[in-house]
Every structure is written in structure tokens, then in C-alpha cells.
Amino acid sequence: MKIAIFVSGGGTNLQNIIDEVESGYLQNVEISMVMTDRDCYAIERSLDKDIRTYVLDRKSFSEDAEHNLIDEEIDLIVLAGFLTILSPEFTAKWGSKMINIHPSLLPKFGGKGMYGKKVHKAVLEANESVSGATVHYVTAGVDEGEIITQGTFEIEQGDQVADLQRKVAEVEKVILIEAIKKISES
Ligand code: GAR
Q1: Which of 7, 10, 38, 184 has a CA that sits 20 to 30 A from residue 82's CA?
Q2: pLDDT at position 80, please?
Q3: 9: CA distance to ligand 1 center in Å?
């Protein structure tokens, strides 16, 4: 299964996928390319492994990405901390082959403008006792696609945004790899 990974940030999830392809756990998976919409640390992780890496303009991202995906016959797109909202044409075409990881228990704390630390801040302000992460298929509605898997953790008294970020990263490491493995074996 050939995958393309879209990133906008630190690339922790990208690194987890790279590690599990290298370890042989994701044995049917080949990372064909990484695409990003901005200058970010994930680019270094990608180039470090000699993965084909594209830095595309946010405004024309969907159109520009399309060409590269078709040329390589990509089977799955993984949005691993990707922040540009893709065009409705793009999601209509690729949605059944495109998954996203989101740092909350969707449908709670999702939608436009809900990403990264903003999600954790909202979770704390709502006095939630549990949070987690979700892997879901991508549709035109932001964070609304069919849920594939979720992982949870307890929020302890005194937890700050940084604590939730750390706990979410641990959960994401497990559920994103399991989702990719399941799809690669189906
Ligand atoms: C991850 O926590 C991911 O769930 C979140 O961004 C982080 C990226 O971290 N995605 C969103 O908020 C999308 N709405 P990483 O770049 O270190 O993998």
C-alpha cells in the first residue's frame, strides 16, 4: 500500500509511521511522499529518510497535490497534523482513501479552528474528565467523517495543556498505526 502523508507541524505522527515501516510492523506500507503546506520540522524528518517531500502553497494545495498523487498511484493519504482545509473536490475524490488524526474524542472539540493546543485548552475549560484522539475518514465537513478508531485517557486534577498534549501524543502513536495497519491488511 502506497501512502502519502500530509503534515504541517512537528511531525511526531509522521515519525511514528516512519519508525513502524522501518521496524516491519507496517509491512505492507510504503511511504511514497510527504507533502506540507508550510515550513515545519516535519520536513526535516522526511528529508532525513530521503522521502520525496513537497512544500506546496496553501492557496492551491489541493490542485497541486492532486498531480503528485495520481502520478504515484497513491492508495491512502494520511493527514498527520495537517492544517489546511482541503477543497470539496479533493475530499470528494479522495475521501474514501484519506484518514485524519484529531486530538480529541470527536464529535467533541472538532471543526474549523479546532487544532493542536486550542483543542486541549477547550477540553480543560469544559472540565472534561476524559479526553483522547480519533482517527477518521475525511469528508468535506471538517472532522465529520466516519470514525475508524479512538483512544482515551483520564484527565487528572491540575493537568495543563502540555499534559494533555503529551497524553494525546501517546494515544495517537497507538491508534494511528493500528488504523493504517488495519487498512493495509483489508
Ligand atoms: C497532533 O496532535 C494531531 O492530532 C493534531 O496536530 C498534532 C500534530 O502533531 N491535528 C490537529 O489538530 C488537526 N485538527 P505532530 O505534527 O507532532 O504529529
Answers
A1: 184
A2: 98
A3: 7
- Count of domains for the chain: 1
> Whole-angstrom Cα distance, residue 89 to residue 112?
18
In contact, 34 and 4? CB cutoff 8 Å: yes
Question: Which CATH number covers residue 105?
Answer: 3.40.50.170
102 labelled catalytic = yes
Whole-number Å distance between alpha carbons of 147 and 175:
12
Q: Looking at ligand 1, which atom is closest to the CA of residue 7? A: 16
pLDDT of residue 72: 86
> Domain range holding 166?
2-184
pLDDT of 70: 85
pLDDT-flagged residues of the chain (< 70): none
